[in-house]
Structure formats: structure tokens, C-alpha cells
Design a protein that fits this description.
The protein has helices at about 40-50, 60-75, 100-110, 125-140, 205-220, 230-255, 270-280, 295, 305-315; strands at about 15-20, 25-30, 50-55, 85-90, 115-120, 145-150, 170-180, 190, 200, 230, 265, 290, 320-330, 335-340, 345. The chain is α/β, with parallel strands linked by helices. It binds oxa(dethia)-CoA. Belongs to the thiolase-like superfamily. FabH family.
Length: about 350
């Protein structure tokens, strides 16, 4: 048996080098949603922390939003597209099963022969993608990896669903990961609990939907497209009773404590979940807490890079700061890691 070479030249360390986002043009305030779900601006703000969200228009596709965020991230990292070896794109709302959105984005950006693939891990998707990107860089399989979290969840929303219609939203965030002199992405703490898949799921698969359409055509009846559904209480309970352990594991894996943190960027699911985690972890007052949910809603796989960029853009955190990231959601899957925050590009 011939000996195989384990890897090309490995890099000792990986770090996030630059970050960019795309926020869809259309801002949808609570007032636009409340009548259809018998709710109120006050209820939505107090129970979720959301005041408004962005919903994409037809031209703001998964690929277009990803490419826009990626261009900003590359500018922030002072790299060109041809210096990227791999694209790892996390999403749960790309309606095309093939080719991967990552491959189309790579081509759109002018990359030639970059490895490209998609990851489906719900709202934990960005942190899963980041962990994989860091490992690719450290193993020497890629020098620079473009990590993208992107969603068009408005395509999957039943506008009359009181649990989901006001929460989910659209957008994209991208981070370039590359080699570094010191470690900038701690080991991931991750896992999943498939026994709770019913807590967040698409209510029917496309085979069932096509059968429903055919039956409706034959009988003159109606059919309803697949929608995302959530048992909000079950997810909320899991989040506030289990995820502080995931955070502690991520801190432990990186060899730091909450006292070492400058920022906390949890998935923007519900500001009350963020509050519960901050309290359970005994987060010091000076730690900057991401609250992008207020104006952005819950953008699932895009929420962490978007919230990270908002903290950096507002000045509440700066490049190089130590931040704990935590993604969690459908699966139920979670992933968290400690990072040194990347640079943002100067605004146009
Ligand atoms: O991103 C993936 C991960 N997702 C999450 O982490 C989401 C986790 N879950 C949540 O964020 C929350 O469960 C929700 C924000 C979705 C719901 O908040 P809640 O406090 O758990 O509401 P609830 O379902 O327990 O309902 C409380 C009350 C009920 O009324 P009564 O029975 O107390 O009179 C509901 O009928 O609020 C009522 N309600 C509403 N009222 C106005 C439920 N939905 C609405 C609504 N507007 N949209």
C-alpha cells in the first residue's frame, strides 16, 4: 500500500479576515404585518425584540445577495476573488437543489475552479460553515475560504402564521477566512438533536406538494405551497435551558472565559433568548451584545454575520475583539465558537 501524503502545507492558524453584508432594500415594519396575524407592534417588540425586518424583492436572489455580501467581505480583507480557493455557503431557503448556490456565487464573482458547496444546518448554518472553513485553511486544503450565510425566508412564510410571519427575514453575510499568525477561530462546540425535528420544519416536502397540485388540478380544488412552521415554545425552552452549556463548551474549547470576551453574537432568534443567555453566562456589563434583531428580524443562517457586521459598523466592537458566536435552530442543531472579529470594508 503506498503511503499517502496527509495534506499540502498546513497553516498553523486560521482567522476571519474581512466581513460584508447585504440588507434587502425593502424594510417591513411590524405595522405592515400585524393585521394579518391579529397581533400588535407592542406584542411583537416585547415578545421578540423585533421592530422591523427586510424582505427581499425578486431581483434580490440568494445568489445576488451572497455575491454582494462577498464583494464587501473581500474588499474588507483586501483580497480579490481569484485568491479564494473555496466557497462554503449556508442556507435553508435556496429553492434550487442543484447546482449549489455556492458554485453559482463563485462563478458570479469571477472565481475559476474554486471548490464550492452548500451547507444546510438551519440557523446554526453559518457557524457550521465557519468551522469547516477554518479546518480547510488549517489543513492546508485551501488558503482563503469565503463563508456565506444567506436566506430568503420570506419565500417560505405563511403570511397568516402568528408564530413565523413576524420573525423570519432575508439577507446575507459573508466572511473571508484565511491563514493567520495567531489563532482567530476557536474549536467549534456543536451538536444536534434530531428527536426535535418537528420543532422547526417545512410543513410538507415538494413531492407531497406536487401530488397536492395534481389532485387539485384534477378536482378543481386548491393546493397550498410548503411553508416553514415552528413550535416557538419548544424551541424557546430548548434555547434557554440547553444553550448556555454550548456557550461554556465553546469558551472552554478556546481556553477563555466570559471575562476575556469583548462581544457576544448569538443567533438573532429572540431578544429574550439573548437576555437569558447573557444572564446564565454571567456576561460582564462591558461585553457588547449583538441586538441586530431589532431592525433585521431573524435571518437564520445570515443572522450571525449580519449581527457581527452591525456591531462593528456601530463602533460597539472593533476588528480583533474577542467574540463568542452561537448559532442554533432547525435540527435542532447548534454550533458556537470564539473568534477574533474581522475587519469591515469602508462604506461607499
Ligand atoms: O431561529 C430559529 C430558532 N427560533 C427561535 O429561537 C424562536 C423561539 N421562540 C420564540 O421566539 C417565541 O416562542 C415566539 C416569539 C415565537 C412566541 O412567543 P411566546 O412568548 O413563546 O408566545 P406563546 O406562543 O407562548 O403565546 C403567548 C400568548 C398566547 O396568548 P394567551 O394564550 O397567553 O392568551 C398566544 O395566543 O401570546 C399569543 N400570541 C400572539 N399574540 C399576538 C402568540 N403569537 C402571537 C402574535 N401576536 N404573533
Amino acid at each position: 500500500m503506498p503511503a499517502l501524503i496527509a495534506t499540502a502545507a498546513p497553516n498553523a492558524h486560521a482567522a476571519p479576515l474581512g466581513i460584508g453584508v447585504y440588507r434587502p432594500r425593502r424594510i417591513v415594519p411590524n405595522a405592515e404585518i400585524v393585521d394579518r396575524i391579529d397581533s400588535s407592534d407592542e406584542w411583537i417588540r416585547s415578545r421578540s425584540g423585533i421592530a422591523a425586518r427586510h424582505w427581499a424583492e425578486p431581483d434580490e436572489t440568494i445568489v445576488a445577495m451572497s455575491a454582494a455580501a462577498a464583494r464587501q467581505a473581500l474588499a474588507a480583507a483586501q483580497l480579490s476573488a481569484d485568491q479564494v480557493d473555496a466557497v462554503v455557503l449556508a442556507t435553508s431557503s435556496q429553492m434550487v437543489l442543484g447546482p449549489s448556490a455556492g458554485a453559482v456565487v463563485a462563478t458570479e464573482l469571477g472565481m475559476h475552479n474554486a471548490a464550492a458547496f452548500d451547507i444546510s444546518a438551519g440557523c446554526a448554518g453559518f457557524c457550521y460553515a465557519l468551522a469547516n472553513a477554518a479546518n480547510l485553511v488549517r489543513a492546508g486544503q485551501a488558503r482563503h475560504v469565503l463563508v456565506i450565510g444567506v436566506e430568503r425566508l420570506s419565500d417560505l412564510l405563511d403570511p397568516t402564521d402568528r408564530t413565523c410571519a413576524f420573525i423570519f427575514a432575508d439577507g446575507a453575510g459573508a466572511v473571508v477566512v484565511g491563514p493567520a499568525d495567531t489563532e482567530g477561530i476557536g474549536p467549534v462546540a456543536w451538536g444536534s438533536d434530531g428527536s426535535q425535528t418537528a420543532a422547526i420544519k417545512q410543513d410538507k416536502d415538494f413531492q407531497e406538494y406536487f401530488a397536492e397540485v395534481a389532485a387539485a388540478e384534477a378536482s378543481g380544488g386548491t393546493s397550498q405551497r410548503p411553508y416553514i412552521r415552528m413550535n416557538g415554545t419548544a424551541v424557546f425552552r430548548w434555547a434557554v435551558t440547553f444553550l448556555d452549556k454550548a456557550c461554556r463548551d465553546a469558551l472552554h474549547n478556546a481556553g477563555v472565559t466570559v471575562e476575556d470576551l469583548d462581544a457576544f453574537v448569538p443567533h438573532q432568534a429572540n431578544s429574550r433568548i439573548t437576555d437569558a443567555l447573557v444572564k446564565a453566562l454571567g456576561m460582564p456589563e462591558r461585553v457588547a451584545i449583538a441586538r441586530d434583531i431589532t431592525d433585521t428580524g431573524n435571518t437564520s443562517a445570515a443572522s450571525i454575520p449580519m449581527a457581527m457586521e452591525q456591531l462593528l459598523r456601530s463602533g460597539a466592537a472593533k476588528a480583533g475583539d474577542t467574540a463568542l458566536l452561537l448559532g442554533f435552530g432547525a435540527g435542532l442543531a447548534y454550533a458556537g465558537q470564539v473568534v477574533h472579529l474581522p475587519a469591515i470594508a469602508p462604506q461607499d
